[in-house]
Each structure stands twice: as C-alpha cells, then as structure tokens.
Amino acid sequence: MGYTRSILRAARKVAVEQSDMPAEIAPDHIRLRLATASICGTDMHYFRHFANAGFFLHYPVTLGHEASAFVEDANGHGFTPGQLVAINPVIECGTCPACARGDINMCPDKRFPGSATTKPHLDGFFREYFDFPARCCHPVAEGVDPDHLTFAEPLACAMHAVNQGGVTAQDKVLVTGCGPMGLLATVAASAKGAEVHVTDLKPAAIDAAKAVGAAGGHVIGQDDMSGLSGKYDVVIEASGSPHAYNQALDAVRKQGVISVLSLIQPTEVAINLHLNALKEVTSVGSILFTDEFADAVRLIESGSVDFEAITAARFPVSQTQEACEMMAGGHAVGKVLIKPDHD
Ligand SMILES: [Zn+2]
Ligand SMILES: [Zn+2]
After folding, report:
1. Which domain does 248 fall in, by range?
2. Which pTM value belongs to this model?
3. Ligand nearest 288 Cα, by number?
4. Can you tell me the distance from the alpha carbon of 255 to that of 160, in angstroms, rounded to the nearest whole number?
5. Domain count, the chain
C-alpha cells in the first residue's frame, strides 16, 4: 500500500516521499489513516537543530507525536474501520515500578514517536498512514472534530502542569507565554475554574488566550508589569525563556507554586533564588502526562473549547516543510495542523 510521508533528513530539511506500508501489521498494532496531526515545540527543536534538549537524532525520522486518525485496519482489535480515535503517543513498558504507580511519563523504557529519546527512533505521524499499538488508540464520541482531537496530547501535557501546580477553582493563575502550550494551559486552568491571566510579547496571542478562557493579559514590553508582583497562587511557565522563571518568582505569591510546563533548553541563567526562599515558593516540573490524556479527550468531546481560536493554519503532509517554517518564523498564533493530501 503506497502512501505519502514526510521525513526530516537534516536540520530544516524535510523530504516528502512515497513509501509502502509493510504488508503485515504487528499483532498488537492497528493500521491508521491520518485525520489531523499538529506540530509541537518538540518537533520544532528537531526541525531547527536535528536535536532536542540534548538528544540528537541519529538518522532521518518522520516527526509528529500529536494526531487523531481513522482506523484503516483493526487487525483483530475492537475497532470499526473508519472509526476516529485519539492517539496517546506514550508507549509505556507497563511493567516497571513507575508504570506500576501509574507514572507512565517516568517510565525509563517508554517509546515515543518522532523523538531521539527512543532508539531505534520510531517514525511519527506526519504521514498519511501508520501502524500504532491498539492500546494507545482511544475511541471518541460521535461527531468529534478530528482537528480538535489532535489537541488531546498537548492538552494532556498542559493539564498535567496544571495538576502539578495544584490549581483549584479558588486560584488566580498566571500563564507566562501564549505559544500553543501556554494557550492550552489557559484552557486547562480555566477548566478547573481558576481565574487565569497571561503574558506574551504578541497582542494577538493574548487575544487568543482570552478566546479560550483568560480573564486578562499583559503584553510584555508594552504594558506595565509591576502590578503582577506577588499576585498569583500558581504561575505556569510556558514561554520556554529561562528569564521567565525570574518573572514567575516575582509574580507568585508567598507560599505559592511555580509549575514549569515549557521545555527550557539546557542553558545557564542566573535565578533569583532568594525569592524562592523568602517567599517559600514551591517549584514543580512537568513532563508529558499520566491520567490526563483521558481528561483531555473528555474536555475535547464536551465541545466547550474554541480550538479554532488557537489554530493558526493547516498544511497537507506534502507541505510539512512549509508548515514547520511557518512555526519557526514565530509569527503563528496557536497550533499549525498537518492534514492528509487526499481525503
Ligand atoms: Zn507535543
Ligand atoms: Zn515502564
């Protein structure tokens, strides 16, 4: 079976190829036809540097770990051909102590598509067809828009950061950075009932955050930020700028919490650690998700989130390079989606 796939051959070089799907599907896998994929910050690091957070790709790989898909061949598993599924890209080992605790994000043997952390690398979802473990594919309610469902994975990551921060309906939350993850953190914290404020360099990004629940926003370099000091129960850092951590230390209230959602690249930066001590700040990291994937699918199914307001553009698989260049340009507000060339 022939199909179109994109493949990252080197930094900033995406090739588009016609490939053949294997004749056999592995027994625990099903065959899927891409509905919608989306570009993640992680994909952008690989696109720019052929590496992410100190992990280098050893050979070309198809990027993409966020997608919804239609079942092409259920391969004996309990799916109906044509059925829409959400894909949880984390293939945990299921047997280690972390997996036994339910902390699949901490599994040392987990496999993840389109990533240098998995060796040999596993091709991701920026292609028209792929096989994936049946247990990672989640049926969804009738009528869910596949373009919304591709948000399940990044929304689950944002929900995990919100849970790590212990956000409740009584909290005032500041989200620093309104890239896709900051926007989804706004969605996640708003869904908890919290009052969410945001910061970003771009007024359009602030507007997008307001469309998905933010009560207020501050444009960095334009608005007076002095009023933010000590006001927030929880600060969710989603900008990826190492300097934003100092902003978070300033904005968080005494005995408040900073939850770091962004993947800040390894770098050295001076931290105002005295604020951490004086204010008794709790700082917590966040990577991937545990139970939040199911929560994310439920929130998408509810139809209560305006995902169109945080969707920047759509490209076919054959224009994955252009899609990545658009993201790399830094002007897009929201997610860039990848769709099959042919419906
Ligand atoms: Zn992602
Ligand atoms: Zn494990």
Report:
1. 157-285
2. 0.97
3. 1
4. 21
5. 2
